[in-house]
Amino acid sequence: MIRLIFLVLVVLALGIGAAWLAEAPGRLALDWHGYRIETSAAAAAVLALAFAFAMALLYRFWLFVRQGPSAFGAARRETRRRKGYLALTRGMLAVASGDGRAARRLSAMAERLLEDRAPTLLLTAQAAELAGEQVQAERAYREMLERPETEFLGLRGLLTAAVRSGDRKAALDYARRAEALRPGTEWLLRERLALEAAAGDWEAAADTLERGAKRRALPEEVTQHQRAVIALQRAGQADAEGLERDALDWAVKAAKADPGFAAAQVEAARRLQAAGRVRKAARLLAAAWSRAPHPEIGRAYLELYGSEEPKRRWLRAEELVAGQLDHPESKALLAEATVAAGDAKAARPLVLALKAAEGETARVCRLMASVERAEWGDSQAAHDWAAKVPKAPEAGQWVCGACGHGASQWRPHCPNCQAFARLVWRGRAEEARNAAPAAIPAPPHSSSLAESA
């Protein structure tokens, strides 16, 4: 709109000027070197304008002749740059889609078209990784270390390659160098924590975890669980060094850090028992059972009273499960204690209730075999149940949250993928609890076992 107004004003000014010349006739004379030129004022104005226009054209032509080659070169470079970045973009898309062949072709094209290699190094490295050419990929990552703008990405690529090849020492060195460049990067804190834990450097892992906690690099419950795992491992280290008091302190810290972590509760209770603090160990395990019943917690609780007679231990089990009667683990613990106490008649309905809750698991088959043997002697039914044990599934196991691999015992690292602090308890008991719980018979107070106890 402004341009249109300006054009109208120019045309209007030219019109006024032409009208003024037409209304004010006059003559213009020029004497030069014996020549005399006479013309009207209007014609002189037109000639002046024509001369100015011709000079402007001549000046533009001179500029074209002078700047043409450089302008042509700049336009050509701009075209190459545009094509280079287009190839770079398409190459990154090819990497994201897993098309290694296209990524390599577009990477080579981008390198050829772009004068600066910095934007193409990452694409070159990732394209080489897709093609399985790890040496070339690492060469590109190392070249990225020489440029400040790509150094961090180069360290990340080398760190990932070192982890993949199992060179944890080099990976940890790359992680520390990368953190020096960008302190507090969340993925880097998690990676460094995993590497320090894999190396058994639990003190450094604890420091890294606390720095990550300040930046909320992980959810609070994950941080608490990892804090408990690290404390548990430090307890083991202290015990190996003969520092029993420190081992107890670390085990108790692990239990407090994650109250739902059965392995930490059991370890703390056993160390408290060894220190002669049986009552505190019992309270710890009872609280843990009330939060989340677990077979290892139940066994550890009964082991606190291993010197007592079986009937007395049965009463201990009854006290422990009082608030969790519907849980399959409560059924299992009561059944085991009742069988151990020798009351097969009272144990049978408990085992059948457990069987209804979790199916014919290995522990159900073992308990049924014990019940049959205790009640009827070495019967065929006892042999049949015992024969099912090797093929029956376990009632639960520790499962890796990263790869899904199962393990019979808890460990700080997954035995399959080596993921740190990812083993969690999973079992048929949890599935049974989500479903409608099977009714558990009332504790057999009326039985001969209760009477004799």
Structure description:
The chain is mainly alpha-helical. Helix content is 70%, strand content 5%. It is built from 21 helices and 5 strands. It has helices at 2-23, 41-97, 100-113, 118-130, 134-144, 151-165, 168-181, 186-198, 202-214, 220-240, 244-257, 262-274, 278-291, 295-303, 310-320, 328-340, 344-358, 362-376, 380-388, 428-434, 448-452; strands spanning 27-32, 35-40, 396-400, 406-407, 423-427. A hairpin with a 5-residue loop joins strand 3 (396-400) and strand 4. Helix 11 (244-257) packs antiparallel against helix 12 (262-274) and helix 12 runs antiparallel to helix 13 (278-291). The chain is rod-shaped.
Short description:
With 453 residues, this protein is mainly α.
Summarize the helices and strands and which ones pair or pack.
Layout: H1 2-23, E1 27-32, E2 35-40, H2 41-97, H3 100-113, H4 118-130, H5 134-144, H6 151-165, H7 168-181, H8 186-198, H9 202-214, H10 220-240, H11 244-257, H12 262-274, H13 278-291, H14 295-303, H15 310-320, H16 328-340, H17 344-358, H18 362-376, H19 380-388, E3 396-400, E4 406-407, E5 423-427, H20 428-434, H21 448-452
Helix pairs in contact: 2-3, 2-4, 3-4, 4-5, 5-6, 6-7, 7-8, 8-9, 9-10, 10-11, 11-12, 12-13, 12-14, 13-14, 15-16, 16-17, 16-18, 17-18, 18-19
